[in-house]
Every structure is written in structure tokens, then in C-alpha cells.
Amino acid sequence: MDKMKISTNAFVPMPVVLVGTQISGKANFMPVGWCSRANFSPPMIACGIGNHHYTAKGILETKTFSVNIPSIDLLERTDYCGLVSGAKTDKSSVFDIFYGSLGTAPMIQQCPICLECRLIQSILLPTNTLFIGEISEAYADERVIVDGKPDFSLIKPLLLTMPDNHYWNLGEISGKAWSAGKRLI
Q: Scanning 47, 82, 85, 183, which has the fewest C-beta atoms within 10 Å of its C-beta?
């Protein structure tokens, strides 16, 4: 099968998270598709956020942020948070908010998984800033924990594809990582 050239911005389905920041003392949330684990120990996460976004200002102001994993039932509220800017719209009442030990990283009670992060490094790129945070605390709803681990079939996270800009839900398990290919060794 021949390969054809496609958009260079269309290559990876991404988890959708809600990044929480506190700006001028008020909680703010923004959906982010460019978010991934960055380090195992200590645990770190990296989020790419457009330089023009209000959320970037909040992260730089407090040196903290949260990463909240919304389930599919939060799709409308998650998308809404990306349609309006926190610079013009107060998004602090869209969700029930709680704070952890850092005190300035608002987290969302309705999200099954919430990570409280301390900013380690910010890398300025041409259009985005890559924010790398150390995960200080992780919180989960008891209902999504099975055998001591998060069960993503119960979390029902959102995925984002580009350039079609569609939300997807997680499919079924296809195999076990670091095991499925052992037959080929």
C-alpha cells in the first residue's frame, strides 16, 4: 500500500484533560489535548499550551497547575471551557472545586482522576509553551479503582483527534503492553 502525505499535525490521538490554574485568586480550567507523562521517578507530566492562552499566565503566576481527567459525561462542560477564555469568563463555577496540599492548583471534583502538579520547567516554543510539572499528589474516585489501579473502562476518558477535531471515547483492550510481542522474541 502506498503512503500519501498528510498534515504534520494529524498524527496522534490525544487524551483530553482539563488543566486547572489559579489566576488572580480565581480558579480557571482549560481543555488540553497535548498532555503526556514526561518522567517516571519523580513522576512528571508535560502539557503543551498555546502562548496566548490565559491558562499559561496562571501556571507561571503560581508555579502550580492541575491535570484533571474528565469522563465522557463531562464532554459538554469540557468543551465549553475551551470555547470561552478565562480572561473574559469566570469558569470557577463550572465544576465543584477542591484543593490539595499545594493550595493553588484547583482540581475538579467531578473528574475521576486529578493530578496536583508543581511546575518544574517551562519551555517556550514558537506558538506554545511546554509546561513540565512534578505530580505532587494524585486523587481518584474510589469507584474507578480496581485492584489498586485506575480502571480506564470505568473512567471513560475523552480522546481528541486532529485535524478533524473530534472527541472519542476509549475502545476495548487490544493486548497487554510489554507482553503481546513476546511471541516474536
A: 183
The set of cell numbers assigned to 181 is 510481542
What's the CA gap between 89 and 144, in Å, rounded?
32
* Unique residue bearing C-alpha cell 513540565: 132
Task: Show the CA angle centred on residue 162, arms to residues 169 and 39, nearest 5°.
Answer: 75
Cell matching residue 51? 502562548
C-alpha cell at 88: 473574559
Its pTM surpasses 0.70: yes
Q: Dump strand ranges (E) for 73-154.
A: 97-98, 107-108, 113-124, 128-140, 145-146, 149-150
Nearest to 66 by CA among 33, 22, 34: 22
The torsion angles phi and psi of 8, rounded to 5 degrees, stand at: -75, -5
Mean pLDDT along residues 117-123: 98
